[in-house]
Amino acid sequence: MDEAMLRSLTPGVLGVLVRRGADFAAAEDAVQDALVEALRVWPDDPPREPKAWLVTVAWRRFLDVARADAARRRREDLVDEEPAPGPVPETDDTLRLYFLCAHPSLTPSSAVALTLRAVGGLTTRQIARAYLVPEATMAQRISRAKRTVAGVRFDQPGDVATVLRVLYLVFNEGYSGDVDLAAEAIRLTRQLRVAVDHPEVSGLLALMLLHHARRASRTGPDGALVPLADQDRRRWDTGLIAEGVEILQTALSRDRLGEFQAQAAVAALHADAPTAAATDWVQIVEWYDELVRLTASPVARLNRAVAVGEADGPRAGLAALAPLDADLPRYAAVAAYLHERDGDRSTAARLYADAARRATNLAERDHLTRQAARLNTR
Amino acid sequence: MAKYLLLKHYRGGPTPVTDMPMLDRWTPEEVSAHVQYMRDFAARLESTGEFVDSQALSPEGTFVRSDGEGRPPVTDGPFAETKDLIAGWMVIDVDSYERALDLAAELSAAPGQGGEPIHEWLELRPFLTAPPTITE
Predict the structure, then answer these.
(1) Same domain as A260, residue A150
(2) Which residue has the higher pLDDT, A280 or A147?
(3) Cα B105 → chain centroid
(4) Would you identify the family this protein belongs to, as annotated (chain B) (predicted)?
(5) E-assigned strand segments in chain A
(6) Are residues A95 and A57 located together in one domain of the fold?
């Protein structure tokens, strides 16, 4: 039995049931039952059309439960109006699931969990492990999310930007154990790109691929963080980089710039540089200017200050940093870096230690502590 | 087997044995050796089946209490200097209290400046467990 194949079929089947009017939670239960049935029956009797088979079994299961339900009459009316299950049309129902799972009524963490469950076809246990929470906790989070979207109908296209944000959240969660969330996010974004013709979907996919390409070089053998400038560029995945760049170029040629395309452009310029010193910082500053124009995000301004520091010298970088809020995440680290390059080692050391105290993950904290230590002891 | 909590503190606790400066005053190599020691320690306890969980905590903490319904919670502000701050914890599951003491002592001997053990104070707290089920 090909588990990956089953997983790839799940969202489509779920989408058909939801489109036919099944309540999301009930549809999900029915699809799970169909999957269990498939695992039992298929080894001896493989179906000719696996997806159609699953739809038929899941729909029958949904009807069984619906008939037995307290709201029997209402659902039976629904069944009367709907066509009987027949051949499965090749419209992409998965798309509805993306919008359902990224519905604005859900909190980001619920949206992420529901997306992984419904669109990604991951088990609750796998999602729980990836987030290091007990399975029962994750099961509750998912069923609460399902209740939240229970009454939502889909007759208008949702907001692509919201879906992309959810997928980017998944990507940034990294990975642990048997589920690689970054790879999962890439898989889902690829799938979305087939269904939605929007340059920002391509922008996000390119961004993910370009980040992912550097993954092997981002940590040392002892788990310590390796900053971009010190990474072994021979370990970058050139295949992923080439794919990311090509996807980005096609997106950019449509002249509908968005924040993910701009971020991907920055990542592409880094990926393209043979050495850290050969990085085209002037162009990177220009892309950050675009990003600031598009989002007015303080984080984009902070990153822009770093790029300005590289393009025009540390003084210019510090000047770009000056108007920003010192409480921004990573502000102290950026200030420390620019002060060191400007020759002010003691201020830099103090700021690195300050940044270490504010770090939100262990690898980052240890890295910043080492930076402070380096300046304090040399 | 019984579970114990090993607490590392940023400050607070008994007077330190050595007059060790903050981590950022060590050399980067000393910092790395210290971190590696703790990582190896956890890995070894995993292999002996005595490791349960470990987490590091940010030094930024806030005391919060309710100030009655309809009022915002009272916090003590961002001034953390006077608090006994917990730096992180490790939970172990061991056969005896003696074993827990041994492991705590071993963790306390993590290398510091010049590779010398830092002899930091660690707090060891047994977990309270659910009452046993009495079957007649």
Answers:
(1) no
(2) A280
(3) 12
(4) Belongs to the YciI family.
(5) 175-176, 179-180
(6) yes
Q: Distance between CA B28 and CA B22 in Å, rounded?
A: 12
Of A359, A362, A369, the CB nearest to B31: A369
Q: Where are the beta strands (DSSP E) in A197-300?
A: none
Residue A16 in domain:
yes
Cα–Cα distances in angstroms (integers) from residue A22 to residues A63, A116, A143, A145, A147, in the given order: 9, 20, 16, 16, 13
Q: Among A176, A167, A150, which Cα is nearest to A112's?
A: A167
B114 contacts chain A (CB < 8 A): no
Yes or no, beta carbons of A370 and B31 under 8 Å apart: yes
- The pTM (predicted TM-score) of the whole model is 0.82
The answer to whether residue B84 scores a pLDDT higher than 70 is no
Structural domains of chain B, with CATH: 2-64+72-126 (3.30.70.1060)
Q: At what angle do helices A199-212 and A181-195 cross, to 10 degrees?
A: 160
DSSP assignment of A270-297 equals HHH-SSGGG--HHHHHHHHHHHHHHH--
A9 and A134 co-located in one domain: yes
d(CA A186, CA A120): 11
* pLDDT at residue A153 is higher than 80: no
Section A54-63 average pLDDT: 92
Which residues constitute the domain of residue A43? Answer: 3-193
Q: Quick: pLDDT tens for A256-268.
A: 999 999 999 999 9
Q: Which residues of A touch B25 (CB under 8 A)?
A: 373, 376-377
User: CB B24 to CB A373 under 8 A?
Assistant: yes
Is the CB of A360 less than 8 angstroms away from the CB of B58?
A: yes
Using the Cβ of A358 and the Cβ atoms of chain B, whether some distance falls under 8 Å is answered with yes
Q: Is residue A105 part of a domain?
A: yes
CB pairs under 8 A between A and B: 48
Strands in A125-249 per DSSP E: 175-176, 179-180
- Residue whose structure tokens are 């940093």: A321
Count the domains in chain A. 3
A179 and A132 in contact (C-beta within 8 Å)? no
Determine, for residues A376 and B59 on separate chains, whether the beta-carbon distance falls below 8 Å.
no
Model pLDDT, residue A81: 61
Q: Which of A252, A262, A169 is nearest to A207 (CA)?
A: A262
Q: How far is CA A301 from the centre of its chain?
A: 22
